[in-house]
Write a sequence for this structure.
């Protein structure tokens, strides 16, 4: 069998469409320039290094119980962002992995 490190989340069994239909927000944690070169429609850009509780709470309608889906280029930074958001007290966080793969899942 294959061991999957704890920092890598398995997102294949998550119904991201259902999460979004129920009010989830997508936070893309890539740099501003990466985000500007392509991103998921209606996603928010908060680079991993800029994630703070006040920055996330400044998003319209977001509180610590809001479902948040993180994404980045390949899944590494979004996994770190998920852990950082949990440490900040956010309750419902999902690692969407790479933004292009996530975009394909929610179309």
């Amino acid at each position: 069998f294959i061991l999957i490190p704890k920092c890598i989340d398995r997102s294949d069994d998550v119904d991201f469409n259902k999460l979004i239909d129920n009010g989830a927000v997508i936070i893309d944690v890539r740099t501003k320039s990466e985000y500007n070169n392509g991103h998921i429609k209606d996603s928010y850009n908060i680079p991993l290094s800029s994630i703070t509780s006040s920055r996330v709470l400044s998003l319209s309608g977001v509180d610590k119980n809001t479902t948040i889906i993180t994404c980045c280029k390949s899944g590494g930074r979004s996994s770190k962002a998920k852990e950082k958001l949990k440490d900040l007290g956010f309750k419902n966080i999902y690692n969407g992995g790479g933004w292009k793969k996530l975009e394909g899942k929610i179309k």
User: Anything to note?
Assistant: The longest strand covers residues 92-98. The first helix runs from residue 16 to 21. Helices lie at 16-21, 32-36, 53-57, 76-87, 99-106.
